[in-house]
Write a structure and sequence with these properties.
292 residues, alpha/beta, Rossmann fold, 2 domains, 5-stranded parallel sheet, 4-stranded parallel sheet, 9 strands, elongated
Length: 292
Amino acid sequence: MDTKIVIITGMSGAGITTALNVLEDAGYYCVDNMPLALIPKFAELADGQKTGYDKIALGIDIRNGLSREQVETLLEEMERFKYKMLYIDCSDAVLIKRYKETRRSHPLAHGSRVDSAIADERDRMTFLKSKADYKIDTSQMLTRDLKQEIERLFLGENQYKNLFVNVLSFGFKYGIPSDADLVFDVRFLPNPYYVDELKNLTGNDEPVYSYVLAAEATQTFLAKIEDLISFLLPNYVKEGKNSLVIAFGCTGGKHRSVTLANAVASQLQKTEYGCKVEHRDIDKDSKRKKQE
């Protein structure tokens, strides 16, 4: 029997437990924080024997110690097994926010500040991250987004390219998103705001979507954007980037930017890359009018 073994590791608070829960629901036998010395022995017990553990997920994090020497020894011993390693990362700012919201203590804090503990952990985890087969950055992910990527990685048939793309629409009058990697101004496209029957709809509504896409300028722009993205994404992966925010902006973030974000996301969702679409400002105009 070939035992499928997944080692899940990464920064504390980044989503290791969530990933284990997803795999457990899918039939994996999951063990969190097993002592490193026992992992090869457990894998040997499961592999080739009628234990019923044909799919195993092992969570390891900084609580295991994870010195470079320990990790090197573990990986050397695990080379005889067909295992894959997933590293779950997250930005320092988001990790600090999560710890504040949950009021939990970082494993390395020991009475010190959380940011110092995170910096210490990141330094100690660098070597393990370099050995991972897959990397996911959860800084911009909801729980359901991480679940989707875990399923794509280990439960689906599609190849995973280590990149999650967030496609975002926004209104320039509300400010450019600070986390955007690529920003495209689509205010040059025909504006449904000036069409009476479309004014109060959004790019999520078919009449607006069709109106914007019908313009020759839109079709030309989309073709160029899709060509650019198809060139950039594999090169970003090669460079080591694992998350990307593509933002489309119009005046209010309700019509043109929403349409373009939906159109681009629709194409990306047909590829091997993870993708979600978000409309940051789609309701802000209507909320502001109610307040007035």
